[in-house]
Amino acid sequence: MPLSYVPILIGLAKSLAKDPKALAEVKLDRTAAAYKTKYGLAEGFHQKLMTKLRQNSFSINLDEATSSNRKKVLTMLVSFYDDEVGQVKIEHLASVEIKKTDSDTVFKEVVKVIEGNEIPWKNLVSVLMDSCGVMRGNKNGVETRLRLEKAPHLLDVDGDSCHHMHKCSKKLCEPFTRYLESLFNDVRADFQYCSEYAEMLAQICAVIGVTYCKPARFIPHRWLSAYDLSVQTTMLLDAYVLFYYSFMKNEDRQTYKEVVDQILSGRGVHKEGQRKLKDIQERIAAKKMT
């Protein structure tokens, strides 16, 4: 939940409180909430996690990504069995900015986090990461160095299953020559760079009773992205047909008029709705398709 919701939650708590005077003087804005979270609650959560890791076996999940401000960030998650709740928990251990993503840099950062927090290496049972050479190379990969220099008992759990699934699905889809992926990218481009198109698509959705959502971006390195966008495109398909129908020439419209009529009939669009739709399509037709 974003910290911008904090003032709203405080107001809600005041309105629901049985004793209004008890919370009357309570004030907490977004900035104060961020400060208290970072320098108050976060430290308590961190120390509690360190205690758990010093006493229990755990696994580390490593991954590097580029942040929104174009900085390379190495994130470490830990998975361990928590006796207090009786289940396996996944917690955030650390996120550190790195200049390079070579194996030596990643290895040193992992060692710094583990040893800097006085976590015994004997408690680390496995490391989960993608299967690239930096992470799992046979000679100088991060996992190889951890096993040779710090934790010889590490289990070999292979690479991240999600990356394996991505490679398999990518290979499976090669014969289809990126037909769907190209469609997803083209549709998104139409509405990403023209707010008027997005607004008129939303209006069409309102007329035919479809929940509007902004066409999402296809992410090539995420194997579920194609599925997610297929679901979204199927949901918006009738709205897309009515939108792109507006750009057709009159002779082409006659060919696909039956398809449009079937959509309107199937969606139960009444005469007033059809009138609104015609007005929207005329405004769309006045634009030039890029």
TrEMBL record:
Taxonomy, superkingdom: Eukaryota
InterPro entries found in the cross-reference section: RNaseH-like_sf
PANTHER family on file: BED-TYPE DOMAIN-CONTAINING PROTEIN, HAT FAMILY DIMERISATION DOMAINCONTAINING PROTEIN-RELATED
Name used for this protein in its record: DUF4371 domain-containing protein
